[in-house]
Amino acid sequence: MARIANDQGDYAQAQQLAEEGLALARALGSPVYLSHMLYCLGEAAYAQGKLGQARLYLVEALQLTAATDLLANLSIALFHYAMLLVKESESDAAESTELHSQAIAVFGVVQQHPATWQVYKARAAALLAQAPATALAATQIYPETATLSEVVTEILRAAGAKYFTF
Q: In the 8-state DSSP scheme, what is residue 44?
């Protein structure tokens, strides 16, 4: 229901439903439902301009799905992480080009991976089609042979160095 609310643009409702779902998923110990709720919360947060909160949810979703090899969920979490990068690029002029390049690279990985649900492949393809050709050529960040887990490892390494240093 949270995913449907997000798709309908009712982000406050999506957040409420996903928070309830997250509590249930944690109680059940279900990594599948945990990852769904985390990326739903991440999407609701970035859509409402709560970029820091979105980053926390999406990084947790990436960590969880990479650790459990839930490839379909991992590709969805990557899609939403790339959407967060787009939102961050719109709000941070100093890092706009770098963030947008990273987002395009992640969309490319998501679009090409066989485990990605068709709806997310189509969404990634539509976003890539909007990118200028010069941007697409400059974003070969990940090797074509990179697995989703390798991409996530690199993202988390970079995110940890930049956002989560303790």
A: H
- Domain positions in the chain are 2-163
Name the stretches of the chain with pLDDT < 50.
Answer: 161-166
Contact predicate 39/57, CB 8 Å = yes
Q: Provide the residue type at 159 as one letter.
A: A
CA-to-CA dists, residue 150 to 1, 52, 62, 103, 110, angstroms: 31, 24, 11, 16, 13
pTM attached to this predicted model: 0.86
- DSSP summary character for residue 131: S
Is 132 within 8 Å of 101 (Cβ atoms)? Answer: no
Torsions phi, psi for 86 (to 5 deg): -60, -45
